[in-house]
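Can't paste images in this forum, so I'm doing it all in text. The chain is below; anyone willing to post the predicted structure tokens underneath?
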Amino acid sequence: MSKQLAVGLFGFGNVGRGLFDVLNKIESRDAYIKRICVRDINKPRGVEADFTDNPDDIFNDPEINLIVELIDDAEAAYHIIKRALTNGIPAVSGNKKMLAYHIGELIELQRKTSTPLLYDASACGSIPVIRNLEEYYDNDLLISVKGILNGSSNFILSKIFNEKMSYDKALRMAQDLGFAESNPSLDIDGYDSLFKLIIITVHAFGCYVEPERIFTYGISSMNDADIRFANEKGRRIKLVAHVEKIADGKIMMSVMPQLISREKYIYSVEDEFNGVVIKGEFYDKQFMFGRGAGGHPTGSAVLSDMTACLYDYRYEYKRLFGHSKVEYTTDVTFRIYLRYSTDADLALFRFERIHERYDSDDNRYVVGDISLESLRAVNEEIRHRHVFLAAYPKD
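Text version of the structure:
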């Protein structure tokens, strides 16, 4: 590749503008943005740059040697990246939803065209988790990856537990600061964490699992009773994504709130920060921490991917192609806290054992053991019920 990157940038939202600012701040000699493709060419941007609303203006420019895609439309992002790889142009993407649905096809396209696609910025903002999984944890010692992958929901939970702020006020603050979108469902309902978990799992265990197969539940139905329960138990609620290798070459995956004890690393991960705990045989646990939301932190991570392209770096997908295969399973049981409204709500859950039960005029909950498969089976139904659940580990 040329020693200077001439970038064709798609998207100039929070992250795109963050990347633009970072490049200008460091006055990079290695990379510059040659042209920016946006949806609305007439929208005031407040910067001097070459804007276009026609993708052909970027793809047909012979000087552009790197495509950087930072748009929020997953389908459009897929076509941009596919076109770049097909044309032999290295690419960087920040669209975790697009990758979660199309990563298998894009890996094959990379191999076919010998053209790299990098996307470390898509998984944990400023934390280089994917590259570390590729380079340092590329062996069979890895047991689990677990953590807070969504800065927006973590910001909201931090305000609730640390400042006694209401859920609605914390959400509005997250939106005002640019940590959450005007439609926050992707963040607070767990989907953003899900997409990141899928990407991480491909690199951690060499296994791709479709989003629809993974139990995913967020914090949008959490209320004061749930917060009070957590405080009484000396715990905090965190939205946690989790992949773990269990017996017989199988892995489990989930995204759901967890009641986290003080002894855990991620208990103290606050505000828009992400925290990832990587566990393996012999080296036990290692913790990675950094900003997971915001234009400048994520823009900096995009720049790191761009810089890697200068040196022809590419993911080797070592776990996918070079190690023993693992399979995804939901045949695993764990303890949860469930707050519910009616007996019909409770009847949806096939508990194997009940450890604790509380029933009053204004609050009803149980603590019990349930299989991941039972939760997955009712995943869509419980989104429409007046219930809230959280994993409740014993330690």
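The CA atoms of residues 351 and 370 lie 5 Å apart. Residues 132-290+325-331 form a domain with the Dihydrodipicolinate Reductase; domain 2 fold (CATH 3.30.360.10).
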